[in-house]
Design goal:
Layout (H helix, E strand, L loop, with lengths): L2 H8 L15 H12 L9 H13 L3 E4 L5 E5 L9 E7 L4 E8 L2 E7 L11 E4 L5 E11 L2 E12 L8 E4 L5 E3 L2 E4 L2 H20 L4 E7 L7 H8 L9 E8 L11 E6 L6 H17 L6 E5 L5 H7 L4 E9 L19 E4 H17 L5 H23 L3
Parallel strand pairs: 3-12, 3-13, 13-16, 14-15
Antiparallel strand pairs: 1-2, 2-12, 4-5, 4-9, 5-8, 6-7, 6-9, 7-8, 10-11, 11-17, 14-16, 16-17
Helix pairs in contact: 1-6, 2-4, 3-4, 4-8, 6-8
Amino acid sequence: MKSFAFAIAACYKTAVFDMPRVAMQKAELIRILRSVLTQPTAPFKEKAVASLVTSFCKAEGADVAMDPFGNLIARYRPAGRRKAGRVAFVAHMDHPGFEIVAAKGKTATAQWWGGVWKEYFEDAAVIVHEQGGVRGRVKKVTPVKGAPRRVETMELSLEKPVGVGSAGQWDLTPFEMRGDLVVTRSADDLCSVAMQLALLRELQRAQVPQEVWLIFTRAEENGFNGALAMLKEREIPDDLPLVSLETSKRLPGAEQGKGPVVRLGDRRSVFDTSLLYFMEHCAAELAKHEKRFVWQRRVMDGGVCEASAFVAYGYMAAGIAFPLGNYHNMGDEPEDVGRFVLRPETVDMRDLVNGLKLMMEMCARIGERERPLAVMKKEYETRNRPYYRRLKETPL
């Protein structure tokens, strides 16, 4: 599967001694994950996550700006950086959830945002993020018109009154480590948010001499609202390569514990060939020099990610995916077959550690982004040149 990427890597040599190595220990990465994953969030209600991201990035010395739509852009721009090459990683700050739109006593009506099938809502436990957490149950749902399995609003029975405008989620484990598994109600996409923060810290430690953007978007679960607002306003430079970070539904060939996935495409789009060649080259180089580094490559067609929006608007985009268990909290464990059970999402810590290594390698090598594709073209030419004359000499 990886022979194609190794062929690219073998076409030219890059000095390895100057490539930065990830210094972050597992315990430190877990602390960053815990700090992010325990934050409340929902589409349009990402304030707590955005506040943490802003504070972290400023403490690490990055420039941070919020656009008119509430998206965040943090830029790592070290002194003495190289002029050639820069890259952006993108993660969204929300997870499927709800907003209280009407309340009376211990009952409330909530607007639901995100892709969870209606069958999972029956008597489901929820938590409203106010007063230290107000718990309740779903008593009734109203489906989206024309989409009977999608939920528009739900009626809640709560342990105490809540205010209009408060956000909520399923009442599931905020964060827990079970062996190598990160267990959390909102891995999608707060794990990727945490990975971007970990990357920033590693870039600062190693003083990687390249410009790197970290973009944190809003309301992805409602249809890429934050990302599309940025694209509409042309906030992102046209020549900036964009790498969407996502926890994405585990699939055959994209299995937990076997490494991050170089995401060739999603359910809607295939991604940029040149950028994918570069990413595979970086992964192949890492695998040659780090025995524990493993990676996967696949079209992750279990869902759609923001890279599809970027490609549609003419950007060079691709993705890195971390295989996700219990996508959108819809239980997919073996014992869940034929049942509609809500569960915390899961991500394998080994995939995150190797994902951080891949991201660092990409940042360090971004100045040579165009070389793998150019080298592959040259290899095609060299291999086939002897046969061009033969084609002419043997006409049909």
